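Milestone M4 deliverable, item 7.
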Amino acid sequence: MELVYNIKDRPSLGKVFLFAVQQLLAIMAATIAVPAIVGNGLTASAALFGAGVGTFIYLLFTKSASPVFLGSSFAFIGSMFSAFGGAASVTVGYWGLIIGALMAGLVYIIIAIAVKKCGVLWIDRLMPPVIIGPTVAIIGLSLSGNAIGDLMKTSVEGGSSYVALICGLVTLFVTMLCSVYGNKLGKLIPFIQGILAGYIVASIFAVIGYATNNPSLIVINYSALTALDFSKFSSYLSLPKFTFALGGIEGLKGVTGTYLLTIFAAYVPVAFVVFAEHLADHKNLSSIVGVNLLEEPGLTRTLLGDGVGTMVSTLFGGCPNTTYGESIGCVAITRNASTISIWGCAILCIIFSLITPLVAFLETIPSCVMGGVCVALYGFIAVSGLKMFQQVDLNKNSNLFVASVILITGVGGMVVKFGQVEIRTVACALILGIVTNLLLSPARKEDKTEEK
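Output delivered:
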């Protein structure tokens, strides 16, 4: 793919700001969704702050050579529930989040050390293109249900799903038209234009709905803004509720040996699963930017950045981080791989998390509008994975079966649970693909011998 801005390019300050806002809008919905799902006092503003800090650390470890944002990981949601559910009180659970993130981060660090000593060739052999291609495609396809669900979802009870669909499609079509037919700058910020268009259309419907007393036309919820009391300073600026401050000294007293074993079982296996997703994401990003990120800056650095970033971000926001497919999709569509944009997004996340009205405004963006954006983002991820098939001979059954197993288990949404540990769809598909490939690789070697 021919990039408009390469990794080390430095656009003008004004463009960097626009690119950073676009990245923020792309990653925002998923980043603040995790604390909303887990609840127990976790907040969107703290999650944004933690994601920004975690991305800072990732960029430092990777020498600013890998253009991807780190946001709240959905894979650890079950682990986070375990931290609260296995504790005597919610207060202990906050320390459980921090301890679990430390354990998960250590998994990344140990693997990074192993890669440093043994290299990455074993990874290429373990996961050749016939595995990575369909796995990357599954990352996008497995999220397609979320995108379509949001596309027809209203943010207000009683709103019409058809009105939501109109707003979502306006967002999608404006994004596509700006990306294809826009001027040079317009092609670089299609998501900003699409989201603004969808937000305006949803607001127009809302005005008509309030004027005619027709709640079915209202799909946007302004309560986050209307709840602000501007007579108080906290309605302008406020520190997020950081995780390390919520547990308190009393919470540490509930951290027993049994509780630590519960946290270990909930976080460590999931960390190995997310490692597989880390590999797939960086393979995908490598194909987009035209640089093998597993060699430069190197898998050791990306793992250390991801692992340490997860540890530190959890101290603030409570949510372990992971490289975001939405961010990678944004790079692919806009063809802007400049890591300055990622730095800018991380800075904006931290600043926005402190400005109460901005956090409130972001929370009012309707689900249907974000659904329209995600249709494009997740679709690009899926297609980029399918493009990797170009170097795979699918006329050979040894390759065909590997790809088939990954695609069907992935599209089918296979999830396996062992107690509190949940192996999610992408990880299940990847693991089964690796096992299938190992079983059939002798046949592939025989085919190569016959060809010679």
